[in-house]
Amino acid sequence: MTDSTARRHQVWWQTVDFRPAPPGWRVVSLFGDRRDVLPMPGWLIQERYLIDEHGQVVAEPGDGVRGRQRRIAPGVTVGAFHWCVEPTDENMPEVDSTWMILAPGQPEPSEEDQVAEVQRRTEAAAQRAAARKAG
Q1: Max CA distance (Å), the chain
Q2: How many domains does the structure of the chain reveal?
């Protein structure tokens, strides 16, 4: 689930297809100062749904004409998801742990890159907190 609306609706992405990745694709995630690199099994093709406060699907303009909006999300397989392939942002709307996706043969980022990214995330979180407090 990703909540990206300012209204009372939540945005949900439902997986409608899966495309396997060739060996060597990886997901790099940051959890504080800790880096995890996991194999990326593939890409999930997902359709967007709005859910109201009662859990009902809400139609969006254009659904009938263009169909639902779609996205392609990198998938990851971890024990917390019962070893199912899930999008990297699944069930973590407030946590953006995914740092980057690496292609086969692409080197992992350096320690300096990681320190800079942790600092950028810390500053961004402080700015969001200040904006919430001011607003």
Answers
A1: 48
A2: 1
Q: Residue 48 has which token pair?
A: 């967007």
Q: Which amino acid is at 103?
A: A
Residues 74-128 have pLDDT tens digits of 998 877 667 888 888 864 555 568 899 999 999 999 999 999 999 999 999 899 9
| 44 burial level (CB within 10 Å; 0-12, 13-18, 19+) | buried
Domain that holds residue 125: 10-134
Query: Does residue 5 form part of some domain?
Result: no
**Closest residue by Cα to residue 73 from 42, 106, 109, 95:** 42
Q: What's the one-letter identity of residue 132?
A: R
Record the tokens describing residue 2, joined without a space: 């990703």
Number of H helices, E strands in the chain: 2, 8
